[in-house]
Amino acid sequence: MTTTHEPLQDQLVADFYAYETLLSDDERKLLLRARDLMRDQVKPLVNENWAKGEFPTELIGLFRESGLAGLPYEGYGEHRPAVSNLLSGTMAMEMARTDASVSTFFGVHNGLAMYSIYSGGDQEQRDRWLPAMAAMDRIGAFAMTEPLGGSDVAGGMRTTARREGDTWVLNGAKKWIGNATFADYVVVWARDEDDNHVKGFVVEKDMPGFDPKKIENKLAFRIVENGEITLTDVRVPEANRLQNIDSFRDVAEILRATRAGVAWQALGVMVGAYELALDYARERKQFGRPIGGFQLVQDLLVKSLGNITASWGMLVQLARLQDAGIFRDEQSSLAKAFVTSRMREVVGWSREIFGGNGILLDHDIPRFFADAEAIYSFEGTREMNTLIVGKSITGQSAFV
């Protein structure tokens, strides 16, 4: 593969330092495939379904036809060799640039669910589940957060697993689970009653006692089918227990990687909001000329571009550390905390540029403004990620 160093004709206006040129030519072809899909086929579906709070099921077929699922996993998906973390991150950014809900649907399936099986399962389990998931013939979900436990779920997980011979019996509840209402495979995390360690189980949607219900009346991520799951004596065979997960320490390995993906998603929200604001500033006229010619508007745009550029550079280096196999929890946490904070600023400034029109869905920007709040909170709040980084740099734990 060769890497392009010439300026790109279709380079994003937000890519001020030309980060896309770091991708190889082959990688960029895949990125452009995702860009075309999101612009031409996904974007027309977004606002209507966001307003209704419904998931457009045709999205599954669109992604299936695109061949974009399974790319990070060697031996699975359309491209048998695994792609770089830089491409995976840039793809997450690209999808969120159009809509954060759609990127979350894809990220839950292709990231949280598939990566849990890829890293936590043995070879037989990977071969059993991942081919159909890579083809998007089967959809995945990831169930960790609980109604009474979010940030404290590592030590306070209430969902239990009790072994009876070659079967595990699961009881408990999960909340805010993306794709829960229609997923074929749900990776459920539960505390073993015997040794008190967290273990992972692939629960299939038709197993008796598995009951997901859609969460209604959400302010953000309205396209995502978040569900609250009740598990009542769900009997799962030992063959469905992820064989390489023995404690929450193993789960943390999964979260470290997926947390980086959320930071890329936050970058995409920044890019999308900035592009909308820039286009509006060029077109909207007040006092006889475009508002983009006013100093205060330019100041907001330049500050937004600075946040995007700084965040993008941080994530490029994080991806390089991932590809080298040397990135650490605290590096992923710093990226999530920093980039989501900058995202909050950018969507606020972008909505401000729209003035009163910034609350009209017809202008797209309200979606970005609302969805940013969800991204800011999930995969570890800013405060929790700050404590992870703080412990690393001081050597002192401030966790309660």
Summarize it.
With about 400 residues, the chain is α+β, with helices and mostly antiparallel strands. It folds into three domains: about 120 residues, Butyryl-Coa Dehydrogenase, subunit A, domain 1; about 100 residues, Butyryl-CoA Dehydrogenase, subunit A, domain 2; about 150 residues, Up-down Bundle (Butyryl-CoA Dehydrogenase, subunit A, domain 3). The chain is built from eleven helices and nine strands.
How many individual helices?
Answer: 11
Low-confidence stretches: 1-5
Count structural domains: 3
Overall 3D form:
globular
Q: Whole-Å distance between the termini?
A: 49 Å
Helix share bin: 40-55%
Roughly what is the average pLDDT, rounded to an integer? 90
Number of strands: 9
Broad structural category: alpha+beta
Rg over CA atoms, rounded to whole Å, is 21 Å
CATH homologous superfamily heading of the largest domain? Butyryl-CoA Dehydrogenase, subunit A, domain 3
The CATH class of the largest domain turns out to be Mainly Alpha
The profile of the biggest β sheet is:
7 strands, mixed
Strand content: 5-15%
Order of helices and strands: HHHHHEHEEEEEEHEEHHHH
What is the CATH architecture annotation of the largest domain? Up-down Bundle
* CATH topology type of the largest domain: Butyryl-CoA Dehydrogenase, subunit A, domain 3
